Amino acid sequence: MIQDILDEIRRGTTTVRGLSKKLKVEKSALEGMLRYMLRKGMIRELHPECRPKGCRGCPYKGKCDQMPVVGYELADDS
């Protein structure tokens, strides 16, 4: 299953919802596998891009690491 997830991310499916639908796996099971893959350094989290004006007015100002995850991408060597 992990290889299937990596293959699907390689094809461009990056969200939990999209991966769940394509792989026909419950989101809760998939989230556990994604956490495992994150710990092993196989994938990285994608976060929203910063605003063009920078941190001014951003609710995550000074807390960029707390921005919500919007998807996943392959780590360099996966």
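the 2nd protein, sequnce then structure:
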Amino acid sequence: MFNWQYIDTQSVFRFFMQTIEMTLFSALIAYALAIPLGIILVVTKKGAILQNRPLNIILGAVINIFRSIPFLLLAIFLIPFTRQLVGTSLGVRGMIVPLAIAATPFIARLVENALLEMDKGLIEAAKSMGANRFKIVCKVYLPECVPSIILTAGVSVITILGFTAMAGIVGGGGLGQWALDHGHGRSNNAVVLVAIILLVVIAQVVQGLVFLVHRILNKK
């Protein structure tokens, strides 16, 4: 049933902004955690500048395990930890923690792949000029791979956006909860349809901005 008259624009805006807030802050936290993890995965590989096979294997295994856990189950499992960390497991504040933790291993692998695509000759050139390991990471790895990392940001942020929709099931707020409570709960498909349209619009805007920033950086 489509009951358009029951759609309150103020409620739509409030849940829309909750989705934006969850997506933005969890993405920033996830990238802050994932970029160092991605770098460690690359520089500790066999033959890399900080070769450490045990660390690489253990870290890779932990990342793969967390990537394998469905978001809803992870969010439920993390409820005690989230409450201890931020004081609540509900709403936007309570969902940012599991969203960031769920996205971090996914983004870490994307960062790793972006770094592995770099021309190895640049590393050898930096070594020949006497650059130490820290300078190679900061002056070679990161600057050369920023465009690739930014390009993968579209996939990462849209993945987090999808997680925010599922977060509504466990009281996370946002468009997902609005669609669940006001749409499915009241048999009003109009609410569900509006939520879907808004999520698609957000995803398209994010992808467009990522491509724009990527083109600007490539021109430079």
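The domain at 10-219 is CATH 1.10.3720.10 (MetI-like fold). The longest helix spans residues 9-43.
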